[in-house]
Amino acid sequence: MITVLSAFRKVLRHYGRRIAVSKLRELDDDALKDIGLARSEIEAAAFGRVHAYSRGRRS
Questions:
Q1: pTM above 0.85, yes or no
Q2: Rounded to whole angstroms, how far apart are CA atoms 20 and 1?
Q3: Nearest-CA neighbor of 20 among 41, 5, 51?
Q4: Dist. CA 5–CA 49, nearest whole Å
């Protein structure tokens, strides 16, 4: 059974990630490249599905 506190934490975590996605989308491609992300990886990165060690090296 999910407690109210647990559900509230999940909601906060979800909205925090959505804010991160929004902020990352505001960056230009050069800024994203500086932090090692492609525009297509923004959502995956915000939701923890992209890890630097599992990606190939980019030039």
A1: no
A2: 29
A3: 41
A4: 25
